[in-house]
């Protein structure tokens, strides 16, 4: 018998592929009918548009309203300080709503939040989302955790109230939103509010590691593989970890501090496997370096890492499945997907092809190439 959580959040993925496609296309039509009444539609299609297929493929540069919003956000960030004890979520909600009126007419939905991309392409980008996106994200995050903590369909090992180790980047990055949403169903430690008050990244990592060293329970982890590998080395091979780091730095206070850590680690506790200190039920990894560390993470945790691909404009377009955790499957509950061939032809998701474009159902975006937001 499936658990209540599984039935509530994962039943969609047990439907046939054709049923999932039908659902996806229905949602796209609903979104398109709203979108073609926006200022964004007027800007991109000044002659009007009757069919989704007639909209040109776009990039972030085709959305000047987002550039303007980002410029205003950066101005407000510099002039409006955080209040004492204010969470980052509350802070960005407060300052973004000062400039959100400029978005009126451009979105298909009422403004709910803004997100910032990581800047992997060289510069961070600001995105805006409505209430529908926030609610979709709240629902979409649960299958990820349940799949990651399941060895077979319908039998997740994780339960509501279990503990998630907080290794998330802070809000307004998308992972910061994920941490906040996870707190609604799980015990995220250290809490989002606690880590929000710590601005130094090294101190944040130290707090996370101290929680684990003190014997705090952890049922689930998520993070970039290289960072998780560093956590593993901290517990299983601390001497080498500190040695590599202090040798990589030029002479200075930081190098001396790391050398002291290296000396202290010689007499510190060392574990054979990370699982000895972190007996987790599931491990989720994101980023491009997953394959490089896959065998290492398997050996350290005795679990199969669960893979996903997430971007800030459209939640999680690709993710694994309980029986094939590291392979990426399309998430048709959340994003409308089409193939873009090397010849520039756009194909439906069920038509075999190479090259991929993501068509998110966001409040502003329509026919947006994945490449433009990969950073």
Q: Describe it for me?
A:
By secondary structure, the chain is an alpha/beta fold. It has one domain: Rossmann fold. The protein is built from 13 helices and twelve strands. The chain has helices at residues 4-10, 17-35, 39-44, 64-79, 88-99, 131-148, 174-182, 192-196, 201-213, 225-236, 238-247, 253-265, 290-301, and strands at 111-116, 126-130, 163-165, 187-189, 220-223, 282-285, 306-309, 318-321, 324-330, 336-340, 346-348, 356-359. It has a five-stranded mixed sheet, sandwiched between helices. Helix 10 (225-236) packs across helix 11 (238-247). It is globular, with a radius of gyration of 22 Å. Mean pLDDT is 87; it is low at 369-375.
Tag the structure with descriptive keywords:
375 residues, 5-stranded mixed sheet, disordered C terminus, alpha/beta, 13 helices, Rossmann fold, 41% helix
Please summarize what this structure is:
Helix content is about 40%, strand content about 15%. The protein has 13 helices and 12 strands.
Form type:
globular
| Domain unit count | 1
Helix count equals 13
Biggest sheet features: 5 strands, mixed
Distance between the termini: 41 Å
Would you tell me the overall average pLDDT? 87
Radius of gyration, CA atoms, in whole angstroms: 22 Å
SSE string, helix = H, strand = E? Answer: HHHHHEEHEHEHHEHHHEHEEEEEE
Task: List the uncertain runs.
Answer: 369-375
Beta content: 5-15%
Q: Helicity level, as a percent range?
A: 40-55%
CATH architecture tag: 3-Layer(aba) Sandwich
Q: The CATH topology is what? A: Rossmann fold
Q: How many β-strand runs?
A: 12
Q: Assign the structural class, choosing from mainly alpha, mainly beta, alpha/beta, alpha+beta, or little secondary structure.
A: alpha/beta
- Determine and state the CATH class: Alpha Beta
């Amino acid at each position: 018998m499936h658990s209540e959580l599984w039935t509530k959040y994962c039943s969609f993925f047990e439907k046939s592929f054709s049923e999932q496609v039908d659902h996806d296309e229905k949602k796209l039509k609903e979104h398109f009918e709203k979108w073609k009444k926006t200022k964004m539609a007027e800007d991109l299609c000044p002659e009007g548009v009757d069919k989704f297929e007639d909209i040109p493929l776009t990039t972030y540069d085709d959305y000047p309203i987002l550039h303007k919003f980002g410029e205003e956000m950066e101005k407000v960030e510099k002039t409006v300080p955080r209040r004492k004890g204010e969470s980052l979520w509350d802070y960005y909600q407060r300052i973004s709503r000062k400039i959100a009126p400029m978005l009126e007419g451009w979105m298909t939905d009422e403004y709910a939040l803004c997100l910032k991309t990581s800047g992997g392409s060289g510069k961070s980008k600001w995105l805006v989302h409505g209430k529908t996106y926030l609610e979709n994200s709240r629902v979409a995050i649960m299958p990820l955790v349940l799949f990651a903590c399941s060895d077979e369909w319908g039998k997740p090992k994780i339960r509501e109230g279990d503990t998630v180790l907080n290794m998330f980047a802070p809000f307004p990055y998308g992972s910061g939103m994920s941490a906040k949403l996870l707190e609604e169903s799980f015990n995220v430690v250290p809490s989002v509010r606690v880590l929000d008050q710590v601005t130094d990244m090294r101190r944040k990592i130290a707090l996370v590691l101290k929680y684990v060293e003190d014997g705090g329970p952890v049922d689930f982890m998520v993070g970039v593989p290289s960072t998780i590998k560093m956590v593993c080395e901290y517990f299983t091979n601390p001497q080498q970890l500190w040695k590599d780091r202090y040798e990589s730095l030029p002479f200075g206070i930081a190098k001396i501090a790391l050398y002291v850590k290296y000396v202290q680690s010689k007499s510190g506790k060392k574990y054979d496997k990370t699982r000895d200190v972190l007996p987790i039920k599931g491990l989720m990894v994101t980023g491009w370096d997953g394959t490089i560390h896959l065998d290492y993470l398997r050996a350290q945790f005795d679990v199969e890492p669960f893979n996903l691909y997430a971007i800030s404009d459209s939640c999680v377009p690709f993710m694994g499945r309980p029986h094939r955790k590291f392979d990426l499957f399309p998430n048709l509950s959340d994003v409308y997907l089409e193939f873009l061939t090397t010849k520039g032809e756009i194909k439906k998701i069920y038509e075999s092809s190479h090259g991929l474009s993501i068509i998110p159902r966001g409040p502003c975006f329509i026919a947006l190439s994945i490449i433009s937001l990969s950073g």
